[in-house]
Amino acid sequence: MGHTFAAANPAPLGLMGFGMTTVLLNLHNAQLVPIGAAILAMGLVFGGMTQFVAGLLEYANGNTFGMTAFMAYGAFWISLVVLLFLPHWGLVPASSPALLGSYLWMWGLFTAIMAVGTLAASRAHQTVFFSLMLLFALLGSAEMFAIPTLNVIAGYEGLFCGLSAIYLAAAEIFAEQFGRAILPIGLHRPAPLHRDDLVAHMS
Q1: What whole-number distance in Å separates Cα of residue 80 and Cα of residue 6?
Q2: Fewer CB within 10 Å, N side or C side of the chain?
Q3: What is the Rg, in whole angstroms, of the alpha carbon atoms belonging to the chain?
Q4: pTM
């Protein structure tokens, strides 16, 4: 007798990796905690490598959007840690404010493209991506124009962005476990009980 294989939904893992790391880093940007090894380790392992793995799993599920988002933002966190460590190791000079601002704005441009894609998904997805687009714009502008206050504002906005991703991850975990929506995410069309992640149906 044959058995039907049901692939697990990797989106909550990727969202948690993104959300928790974003919250931790932006506690620093908001000047609530100093930079430290906990932030860098989280960025490298959970925000970076774990998100990258989630993207590979989304590839196996045939989800182009999820694959692109998780692998790209996983690469972002890894590149950010590398960007900080290369000058520390004396391998390359530190990036100028203009170069670092350009780096952040390029990620903002990428996020803007992904944010448009979430218009076919839930309101919760849109909240995560549009708030992330604003976060990159603020951080890039803070570096480019040497406005430290913008960095602090970005920190608080980043806390909102990260917490919104954690909320969405929790909503998807609960929906999988209980077979029904527990936390509202602003669906605008019916979704299967055990696949609440509309992004999985966008590709």
Answers
A1: 35
A2: N
A3: 17
A4: 0.89
